[in-house]
Amino acid sequence: xxxxxxxxxxxxxxxxxxxxxxxxIIHFTVRKTTETIEExxxxxxxxxxxNYLDSEKKNFLGLTKDWAAWTEAWLFMQGRxxxxxxxxxxxxxxxxxxxxxxxxxxxxxxxxxGLEYKEAYNKFIPVEEDFWKKFLERYVSLYDRPDLKIPGFxxxxxxxxxxxxxxxxxxxxxxxxxxxxxxLLMGREIxxxxxxxxxxIFSFLSFKMEKISERKEVSENKPIIxxxxxxxxxxxxxxxxxxxxxxxxxxxxxxVLWNIVKKKSFKIIYILSFSFITVWSFLVCMxx
Length: 288
Fold this sequence. Notes:
By secondary structure, the chain is of the alpha+beta class. Helices cover about 50% and strands about 25% of the residues.
């Protein structure tokens, strides 16, 4: 074996070993570190998202409270304001408040009057009393003193495949005095436009509210993080209006830090390879 061949082989072994060592360090050490950092930020993002959704619930409950604690509605529930629905529940009311349901139930849980707005047809449809009574029953089960002034309740759920926000509040006088005479239910659809807005606010690749199809897919109040080559998928289950973990949010977010590390590692490997070729060419010339 010639000296040139020995030098070439030795140098090849050295450079290849160096490249493999670099890949090993990046893959098993640096990658693990970046994953730990990225997952921490993901958990922080989920926390911020939950706070955002909680604020949406709080704001919607505030809207329901304004409509429920209203002397005009309180008189209507007692048959003393017959034009209340005609004067107040119109198309503009639903559109301006971004709601699709306003329904008044009496103290015994029977529907007194309500409207459900179908945006696709731009018209009102009959209220599905049996469907919405389940929400009222859940509310009453939490607060079994309907004759007292009690707080409202709100939560996420689904109507068909559409995620919705539902809020219930007792009907009272405007100054919160007097006996509760019934309940107000209001509903808001979480449409694709709203979900896209949330995606943009938090810089997610995607954001979706979904029904939980398989129990094994979720972990209560703890995000499930699945790492991919270029992005993370996060699934987080939340308590719905009924206290069940059937409501989940699914998000995707780019693996920014790991993608930067990969680009840097490719540059390092490229530099090592280029250096190998340069030095090898020089050594070959020296041997000659």
